[in-house]
Write a structure and sequence with these properties.
mainly alpha
Length: 159
Amino acid sequence: MAINLTNQPRYIRIVNENKGKPQPEARLPPMLAGGILFAIGLFWFGWTANPPHHWILPVIAAAFIGTGFNVIFQQCINFLVDTYGLYAASALAANTFLRSILASAFPLVARPMFHNLGVGPAMSILGAIACLALPVPLVFMKYGLQLRKMSKFAIVGDD
């Protein structure tokens, strides 16, 4: 939460420089930081969750996972609201629907994966997927404006 709160003054300054118009791409740097924390936490948790390691290690790793997820989630919601303005409720509903579909499918995959591979390798797969997603905020930072210009629902400021 501290990452998101410290980004807010920066974001307000950017919006003020843009004559009060939202700049969704300015929401993305904290998302990248959250993604890094999330990926670190997944790997750390996976390889310290076994009995030879002190119990505090996976607890600290879980804090990294939780912090990273919180930052990613909050910035994603803020990004969607800034991007779609009047249509933000629909964008958030679509986001929630997609998240729910994926969340309902995950238990079908997770149990066999953790049972057959073990905690370390299974968490490493999740950590690798998280690492593969790290460039997503960078792609949106670079191409976000062009993508918003292609949408008939997104807010695009005057160039």
